[in-house]
Amino acid sequence: MKSLVLKDLYNIIHNSRSMLFILLFFAVVFLPSSGIQGYIYTCAILCSMMIVTTFSFDERSNWSPYALSMPVSRNDLVAGKYIVLFLFSAAGVLSGLIFGTVGSFIHKSAGVVPETLSEMPLSMAALTALAFSTVFGSISIPLTLKFGAEKGRILIFASFFIPVAVCYIAYRLLSALGIAITEPFLAVLLYGSPAIAFIWNYFMFKISCSIFSKKEF
C-alpha cells in the first residue's frame, strides 16, 4: 500500500509548482474578501482535485494492467487512491493555514484588512475543510474509474454538485418537518463533519471497488 501511495505522490511532484502558484494567486486575490477560513476551504478543495490527475498518469502509462500482474488486489489500488486523496486534502489545508496566515499579516500591513466571514476558529475551519474536500474528491474517484480520466475532468463538477444537492434536499426536508436550522444545530454538524466524511468516503470506496472489479484490461 505504501508503494501505491508513493507512486502517485512522486508522479504529482512536477505539478506542485503550478499548484503552488495557483494557491498563492488565490491568496492575493481572494484572501481580503474570503478571510483565512474561506481560503483554507479553497486550498483544500483545489488540492483534492489533483486526484483526477493521478488517474491521467495511470492511463498514459497503462498502470492498472501492470499493477494487477503483481500481488496487488483491485481493492488495494482503489484504497491507495483514497489515501492519496486524504493526503492531497491535508496538504491543501496546511497550505491554506500557512499562506492564509502570512497573507493576512501582509494584507494588514498594507492596510487591507481581510474580512472574517465567520467566527469559526481556524482549527475548526481546517478540520471541516479537510472533511468537505475529501467528500468532494471521493465522488470523483468512482466517476473517473467509470468514465476515464479525460471525462473525469469534466465530471469533476458533479463531485461538487452532488454533495450540495444532498445538503439542499436535507435542508428542505428539515424545513418541511418544522426543524429550525439554528446555530447550535450547525455547530453539531460541523463538529460531526469528520465522522460524516468518513462514512461518506467508506460508501464511495465500496462503490469504487464495485466499479473497478468489473473493469476489463
What does this structure look like?
This protein has 8 helices and no strands. The model is unreliable at 111-117 (pLDDT under 50). It has 217 residues and is mainly α.
Can you give keywords for this protein?
217 residues; 8 helices; 0% strand
Oligomer: single chain
Helicity, in percent? Answer: over 70%
Number of helices: 8
Using only CA atoms, what is the Rg? Answer: 19 Å
The largest pleated sheet is described as: none
Distance between the termini: 21 Å
Report the uncertain regions. 111-117
Give the overall shape, derived from the CA principal axes: globular
SSE succession = HHHHHHHH
Summarize model confidence as the mean pLDDT: 82
Report the count of strand segments: 0
Q: Which range does the strand content fall in?
A: under 5%
Class by SSE composition = mainly alpha
Fold blueprint:
Layout: H1 2-12, H2 16-48, H3 50-60, H4 63-68, H5 74-109, H6 122-147, H7 149-176, H8 183-213
Task: Give a brief outline of the structure.
By secondary structure, the protein is mainly α. It is 84% helix and 0% strand. The chain is globular, with a radius of gyration of 19 Å.
